[in-house]
Amino acid sequence: MESTKAQRPTLNDVAQHAGVSIATASKALNGRSDVAASTRARIEVAIEATGYGAGRPRGAAAAPTIEFLVDKLTSPYAMEILRGVTLAAEDAGIDVVVGRFRPSPHKSDQEVIRRLNRSGRVGAIILTVDMSEATHQAISRSALPIVLIDPLRMDGSSVASVGSTNWIGGRSATEHLIGLGHRNIAIIGGPAESLSARARVDGFRSAADAAGIAVPDDFISHTGFDHDAAERIAHELLSRDDRPTAIVASSDAQAMGVLEAARQLDIRVPEHLSLVGYDDTYVASWANPPLTCVYQPLQDIGRVALRTVQQLSAGEHLDSHHIELATRLVVRESTAPPSDRNHS
């Protein structure tokens, strides 16, 4: 039974036979009007030649599907990237299935990759997941196009990935605070094993070094990108006699945790503490006060990842296996020059 499924013609077979993209083949099969008559004719010939239509009712062809996998779906960051993926997929006539990368502690990463290869998807997008070198190698050998978004680590293989200019983001956040007059600045980084987190901290260090600011080792921390972990660290930092006058957070969720710690300690933002978030998701403008943030083009990252899956599925050559989109600083009300009240 399993071998019969493996031999069943796929939409990718039709697209390759007709010399078109999977998205174009899907549009023709689903009766879309934006397909040229000559192209539609080639696709119909390809359907007959490959036997793709055998056993399927006329007009019942399924759209190609990609799988979007993430460890946690609770963050605004993940939701914004998923929004970009789904919007691009709608335009391309591709369906999106969402799941968790590790749905069970009993399944290895390699088993997940093997399942994807047997799934009949045209590709997969995996978001911010910590993987072993063996898993990266399994992805690089995979017959299924797989694109990583903001991978926690890379092993130098040819796995396609999409991210943003994290070093510049960390540096621009810190330069903004230095420009306001802050010299006592801390950063709450993401996980120590995360490439993006380390890049943001390296950008922070670079800006501090360029300004001649010596940052105490315990003003630089690494933790999860979530609210609660950052709240605990911020509470410790803000309880010190030499507490920082400004903090750079490595996600909007972390920044919200810093705001909560400041509230508990009756430290007002930005009067007593300046705060910069990271990502600039919708929660940043909803915060009180609205957060100054490093903006990541999260929806565009999702769109680029979807297009990269399409390119790989069509057998196209990638100009680069790692794409970085530009960050920029968005200034709102959570940052201000330091004052004597910072240590009152």
Note down, in words, how this protein is organized.
This protein folds into three domains: 2-50, 434 Repressor (Amino-terminal Domain) (Orthogonal Bundle), CATH 1.10.260; 65-165 and 298-326, 3-Layer(aba) Sandwich (Rossmann fold); 166-296 and 329-343, 3-Layer(aba) Sandwich (Rossmann fold), CATH 3.40.50.2300. 46% of the residues are buried. Strand 6 (185-189), helix 9 (195-210) and strand 7 (220-222) form a beta-alpha-beta unit. It has helices at residues 2-7, 11-18, 22-29, 37-50, 76-92, 109-118, 133-141, 166-179, 195-210, 227-238, 252-264, 282-286, 298-313, and strands at residues 65-70, 95-100, 123-127, 146-149, 160-164, 185-189, 220-222, 246-249, 274-279, 292-295, 322-325, 328-330. By secondary structure, it is an alpha/beta fold. Helix 5 (76-92) crosses helix 13 (298-313).
In short:
The protein has 344 residues and is of the alpha/beta class. It contains 13 helices and twelve strands.
Secondary structure: elements and pairs:
Blueprint: H1 2-7, H2 11-18, H3 22-29, H4 37-50, E1 65-70, H5 76-92, E2 95-100, H6 109-118, E3 123-127, H7 133-141, E4 146-149, E5 160-164, H8 166-179, E6 185-189, H9 195-210, E7 220-222, H10 227-238, E8 246-249, H11 252-264, E9 274-279, H12 282-286, E10 292-295, H13 298-313, E11 322-325, E12 328-330
Parallel strand pairs: 1-2, 1-3, 3-4, 4-5, 5-11, 6-7, 6-8, 8-9, 9-10
Antiparallel strand pairs: 10-12
- Rounded to the nearest angstrom, the distance between the terminal CA atoms is 74 Å
Strand arrangement within the widest β-sheet reads 2-1-3-4-5-11
In DSSP terms, counting alpha (H) and pi (I) runs of 4 or more, how many helices?
13
Overall average pLDDT: 85
